[in-house]
Amino acid sequence: MTATGQAFWNRIADRYAARPIKDVAAYEEMLAEVGARLRPRDRVLELGCGTGGTAIRLGPQVAEWIATDFSDRMLQIARTKAVPPNVRFVLAEAGTAFDGAPFDAICAFNLLHLVPDMPATLAQVHAALRPGGRLISKTWCFADLRRTLRLLFPLLRVFGLFPPATSLSEPQLRQAILAAGFTIETQRSFGRSPQSHFIVARKPGPP
């Protein structure tokens, strides 16, 4: 990610942490869906963990959860919480977060539209997973929004109110994941955000 993006997330980290979850039921449903795909012996890497809420909730279900983010302020906030002993927060960009590979699962929630080179990131994820390992992701596809909303994001970015992001469509997201060598097991949306696509993709091979 870019220095501009890092500065944006450091600047808004405290506001981000204080903001309540918009759709609690959808978030809980997503956590249940992710948790059902994890095993007690799994080693999990999370890319773009933010202030750590998902890592703290799901980490106790696995052997090890390494939660990474490139915003040091986000991680400072995460470390003030009640962190389970098997959850570790690490400062790292999405492209350099794969120390300790291979992993059984790699999570990327609200991240793939933010990385500067999504195909390269997906290739790194694929390489860092064990055969049979899973990429568990949720990605905003801004290109699927109404045109009036799509035009709003560049304006917000000019005023520093929106981070650098790629305007992906759902077919583009699917094709990028497939092109990286994954098979898609599950795809769905939660709650009132049909443009936010939850995808579980598997690296071929025995688990």
UniProtKB/TrEMBL annotation:
Record's keyword terms, sorted: Methyltransferase, Transferase
Domain of life assignment: Bacteria
Q: What's a Pfam family in this record?
A: Methyltransf_23
Establish whether keyword Zinc is in the entry: no
Tell me, which GO biological process terms does this entry list? methylation
The cross-references to InterPro entries, in alphabetical order and at most eight, read:
SAM-dependent_MTases_sf
Gene Ontology molecular function, alphabetical: methyltransferase activity
Tell me the PANTHER family matching this sequence. Answer: TRANS-ACONITATE 2-METHYLTRANSFERASE (PTHR43861:SF1), TRANS-ACONITATE 2-METHYLTRANSFERASE-RELATED (PTHR43861)
Name of the protein in question: Class I SAM-dependent methyltransferase
Give the species this sequence originates from. Fuscovulum blasticum DSM 2131
